[in-house]
Amino acid sequence: xxxxxxxxxxxxxxxxxxxxxxxxxxxxxxxxxxxxxxxxxxxxxxxxxxxxxxxxxxxxxxxxxxxxxxxxxxxxxxxxxxxxxxxxxxxxxxxxxxxxxxxxxxxxxxxxxxxxxxxxxxxxxxxxxxxxxxxxxxxxxxxxxxxxxxxxxxxxxxxxxxxxxxxxxxxxxxxxxxxxxxxxxxxxxxxxxxxxxxxxxxxxxxxxxxxxxxxxxxxxxxxxxxxxxxxxxxxxxxxxxxxxxxxxxxxxxxxxxxxxxxxxxxxxxxxxxx
Length: 274
Hints:
Structural class: mainly beta
CATH topology: Beta-galactosidase, Chain A, domain 5
Number of domains: 1
Radius of gyration: 18 Å
Strand order of the largest sheet: 5-6-7-8-17-14-13-10-11
């Protein structure tokens, strides 16, 4: 994919700085971000897709997911913030919020075990980011517009050393080195070594990039709905324990080096994972 020249970047940066923050809405698990910079003016995110037990790589996906229910408890009148309560199994509560800013969305999650037993949930999928409109590509083509960072630097997903050996052959999973492979999503695990917690894509007109990262990465995932994921690690909750997780969705001018600088500033404690 090409990058705009200096003059083009200056115009993009000016548009970025003068544009207001995105606005948010949520209906039946579908989070919608509206912003004039986005193709079609919006981006859809399946918010809180799944909570997952360990040992799921060789197991039916329905046996790995844990039922949960999410309710919207606050929506800012200007569309800048949403707050939710999610209950799981039923003693675990997740209070979470999404805030819009000029450069994207900030997600925070407080997970608390109110029960008397250890909660053995390994990881969760907070944001299935649908990118077909943004990239202008379908399932077969969006890998050429999407990327992770490997030992070769920024690497388009269609140039990854891929595999197909998994219970479900579609998609591709990118694991940090500290994650047990048997706990992974039951999709194929890429053989290429990923060196950053960022996964993202370029807009069809090459003006913008969209990327996501979390502070305790369990996996990066190229999905089956023309989607991208950064899925955080939970590693269980003891009785009475609370854990905090953060995730960022970046909407930035097409400047991967600037994206990397932002990621390192926003998640300084996460780079050691790689």
